[in-house]
Amino acid sequence: MTEINMTKQLYPALETDTRLFFVVDSVEDNKELYDTLEHAEVAKACLNKKNSPRIRVCLVRHAYKEEMDGLTGWNYDDQADTFTDITPDDFTA
User: Fold this and answer.
1) What phi and psi, each to the nearest 5 degrees, are found at residue 65?
2) Is the whole model's pTM more than 0.85, yes or no?
3) Where are the alpha helices (DSSP H) in the chain?
């Protein structure tokens, strides 16, 4: 059974989504999803500069909203096809 199917069985109301996010990560930090560039820039500024933090625009599959510590944010099921980087070349005609 795949992880996504297990997640859906445990949380039947949980639906995954595919959409664009600003993704912040570094060589030492996990990928975090943000709806706005402003929030992504704040998150990047909080990471250790020695770890080369970055912001990418990605198409993220298997994303879902999750509540943690009273806040609702985006999480994802990490699978081989979860992240696809979007580059300026993707928008040229």
Assistant:
1) -80, 140
2) no
3) 3-10, 37-46
What span, in angstroms and rounded, lies between the C-alpha atoms of 22 and 71? 19
CA distances from 83 to 7, 9, 93 (A): 19, 23, 23
**Distance, first Cα to last Cα, the chain:** 41
Residue 29, Cβ density class (10 Å: 0-12 exposed, 13-18 middle, ≥19 buried): middle
Report mean pLDDT in 10-residue bins for the chain, 93 residues: 50 68 96 95 97 95 90 90 87 62
d(CA 64, CA 85): 19
Tokens of 14: 């949980």
Instruction: Give pLDDT tens digits for 44-69.
Output: 999 999 999 999 999 999 999 998 88
Q: Quick count: other Cβ atoms within 10 Å of Cβ 4?
A: 16
